[in-house]
Amino acid sequence: MSNWKRHLLVMVVVGWALGCSDGSPSPAVDWDSLRPEAGSGCSALSVNLDGHAIFGANLDYRQHSRGQLFINRRGISKTGLYPSATGVTARWVSRFASLTFNFVGYQYAWGGMNERGLVMSTMALPQSIYPPPDHRPVVDSGLWMQYMLDTCATVRDVIASDSLVRNVTVDHYLVADRSGDVAVIEYLDGETVVHTGDDLPVSALSNWFYDDSLRLWRAYRDSGNYWRLDGNLQRFCLAADRVAGFEPASREEAVSYVFDSLATIAGENFSVHSSQWSIVFDTWSTKVYFKTLAHPELKWVDLSNLDPFCNRPVEMMEIQTPHIGNVESLFFDYSHDDARDHFHWFVDTWETDASRQSVDQILSHVEGFECNRGQIRRRGTGRRLVP
User: Fold this and answer.
1) Mean pLDDT of 281-298
2) Closest CA to 168 of 190, 194, 184, 195
3) How many CA atoms does the CB half-sphere of 253 hold within 13 Å?
């Protein structure tokens, strides 16, 4: 198998798993015949507090709990892995620093927020049919999300970027920003489909088409008999209920409400609690809160306390830490060995048809991103991230 084909195979599998699909059958057309599954997936929702998004996301797994956090610097020159149909490869410099949660590996974000308050999370949608090759260079799946966090400040920026790069993915995404704008981005029948504004009456997402999920929620919400639905649709309906039921609150109460919502989605109303991670992003304060199933004590990171500039190494930490409260001091300089071990763990766990050598080549590519010192612009004093 040629290198580029192997890379593409790895990234398609990476994209599938990055969005948290367990490979189980898709929901059947006969909705009433469906029953709850204690399966896997991902879920996300966003509520609006005083015109700003409070965004929550679950990694809804029983089996796989590993993950890494990265502080991605501003001013890094990056390139994509694959050329467009006309031979052009994506090239960009990160305009914004970000904090990402990575399930697959370095630069392949599962979820995250940048210093401008843009936040995203991914969920698998294996039925996705992404746009065919054209003049746009390919930036695939998790690297696509990192590209957005690197270059976009708002949901509108993310939507507009579809004219610049082509996402090769089997995922769909929930995106929100500091202004409270929210969007769902899907790839259906070879087209990019965006739900936002009036076309996004409830800001929630799981592992099924947004339109179908919304229709089923509206059909079942009065009775609340979500047990009749597939697990993916159950999680969507529970998330939609929580979004619809949100009322104005203090910032601390809103964060707690979203965590409670994530716990409900994860299965506290059912027999199995499956979430391994639960993360809440406050887009106004740029604070990120998280818990894990193994270590459920609340932890948080304030992006405004982190150095965003690329004259320092990327920093990382393991998500499974028993520490409580502010965990900013636990970040350490990027470690090739730790990143490689995690990437290999992912490939081995998911039994992908790819050699470790191929994965090492991908890791070598993203580790080769360098600081473009001409792009560093210190705005104001101190280390605050928000420009």
Assistant:
1) 95
2) 190
3) 7
Whether the Cβ atoms of residue 256 and residue 267 lie closer than 8 Å to each other = no
Q: Residue 346's pLDDT is what? A: 87
Q: Does residue 363 sit in helix, strand or coil?
A: helix
Could you report the per-residue pLDDT of 119-130, keeping only the tens digit for each?
Answer: 999 999 999 999
Separation CA 172–CA 175 (nearest Å): 10
- The predicted structure's pLDDT at residue 31: 30
pTM of the model: 0.89
Span 336-364, mean pLDDT? 87
- Terminal Cα-to-Cα distance of the chain (whole angstroms): 46
Per-residue buried b or exposed e for 300-327, using 16+ beta carbons within 10 Å of the residue's own CB: bbbbeebebbbeeebbbbebebeeeeeb
What whole-number distance in Å separates Cα of residue 13 and Cα of residue 348? 12
Q: Give the burial string for 198-219 (b: 16+ CB within 10 Å, else e).
A: eebebbbbbbbbbeebbebbee
Angle, helices 251-263 vs 231-244, to 10°: value is 160
The encoded tokens of residue 279 equal 């993360």
